């Protein structure tokens, strides 16, 4: 098995574990977080580029409202 296993089953299990850990603290992913996680897992964008795009958008708009709709790779 590769060091990084990107099979759907592994990603799904990892997502559930992350969500469960955050839920213990009362945090739940919103729709945008879920969309971004799936896009990254599917290879539509890499983490570094995602972070830069989020930061640039938030600085320009002072919000993330409309971010998902403005990204072709999230459609």
**Beta-strand percent range:** under 5%
State the share of residues found in helices, binned by percent.
Answer: 55-70%
Shape: globular
Give the ordered list of helices and strands.
HHH
> Low-confidence stretches at least 5 residues in length (pLDDT < 50)?
none
Biggest beta sheet attributes: none
How many separate helices? Answer: 3
The radius of gyration is: 14 Å
* Overall pLDDT level: 87
Number of E-state strands: 0
Structural class by sheet pairing and helices: mainly alpha
Question: In whole angstroms, how far apart are the ends?
Answer: 31 Å
Give structural notes:
The protein is an all-alpha fold and 75 residues long. It is 57% helix and 0% strand. It contains 3 helices and no strands. The chain has helices spanning 8-24, 31-41, 47-61. It is globular, with a radius of gyration of 14 Å. It starts with 7 loop residues before the first helix and ends in a 14-residue tail after the last helix.
Task: Output the keywords.
single chain, 75 residues, 3 helices, globular
Annotate the secondary structure layout.
Blueprint (H helix, E strand, L loop, with lengths): L7 H17 L6 H11 L5 H15 L14
């Amino acid at each position: 098995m590769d060091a990084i296993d990107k099979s759907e089953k592994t990603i799904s299990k990892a997502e559930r574990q992350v969500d469960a850990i955050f839920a213990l603290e009362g945090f739940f992913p919103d729709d945008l977080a879920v969309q971004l996680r799936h896009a990254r897992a599917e290879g539509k964008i890499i983490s570094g580029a995602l972070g830069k795009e989020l930061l640039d958008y938030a600085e320009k708009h002072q919000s993330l409202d409309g971010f998902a709709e403005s990204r072709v790779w999230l459609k």
